[in-house]
Fold this sequence. Notes:
It contains ten helices and 14 strands. The strands form two sheets. It has a twelve-stranded mixed sheet, with helices on both faces. It has a two-stranded antiparallel sheet with strand order 6-7. Helix 5 packs across helix 9 (301-316). The model has no long low-confidence stretch (mean pLDDT 97). The protein starts with 6 loop residues before the first strand and ends with a strand. By secondary structure, it is α+β, with helices and mostly antiparallel strands.
Amino acid sequence: MNTLTDIEFRPLTIPDSIDAPDAADFVEMVRVRNLIYREISGHDDHAIAADELLPHFAPNQYERRQMWLILDDGAVIGRAACDLPLENDSKVAFWLIELLRDTWSRGIGSAAYELIERTARENGRTVLQSWAEHPEAPGPRLAPPTGFGEIPEDHAARFYLRHGYSLEQVERNSAFDLTAPFDTVDRLLAEAEAASAGYRIVQWFAPTPPEYAEGYAWMKSRMVTDAPAAALEFDEEKWDAARIAEHDAKYVGRTMQVTAAQHVASGELCAFNELVVGKDRTEASHQEDTLVLKEHRGHKLGTLVKCAGLLSWREVAPESPRVITYNAEENRPMLDINEAIGFVPIAYEGAWKKVLS
Length: 357
């Protein structure tokens, strides 16, 4: 049996393009990433093509990402990463360790975690946070302090607990069947339109048109302050048109549609929903951020932007079979909307936190 002496943590080179001479490591990282996600979830809805993932690794002024390939006797078996937000005086680091299942229980994950924690400390970070899917399994259960949701005490949970982490939040992964009739979506949209007099729908595809950039930026900045976060810690983010342009550039080669609600009298954008699909539009679609600004809640704007987005999405990606989304289990208002529309739970994620001494 191989030992840790065969294990290498190689810093990942980020190529300029997927065809560049130094792109082989990145391409192999994505291939193994997709295999690992299939092992965990049992499906390929989280898979992404290497050329579509590459823009997400472009250097930017908002965070610094350090990633390592994990190699066993020269073969890539996983990856480890530590993301460091660059907001003023940030104390937070976000990390992941992902390994092919047949390499588990050899101490490789713990060796990778030593690298993560050392990197966080060297960069002055004291709050470490990480997410993992916890597939349904028999045995003991864990619940977060919020009192909403639970996960099995599985291999991943035991890893976090062993390294001093606490479960802070459970997120629900839900799916909507795009091939089923849309009668409910039509009905809910009509109800939302009736309840939201004084608002109108506006839609665009990335890159964001200039007339919407500032309003969209303000809503994106509110994602970290207005969405339920339990005891997780996030830096307040400053967003402007330049940051929106950097965000939109991550979706080169993919299609992102933004559906927003605009307050007619003031012109303010006050709710939005994002839908994304890859260049292969027979793949699953992903519902990314959704938010209704606090001061505009109570007018069914969440239902309005979600239903309007889904209805138009049938024209954008008619062969995409389903939409995948995530919500905190305590985010009852948004889960109520999703459940009414027809989203059903398919998996649960744990959000884990450790504060370093």
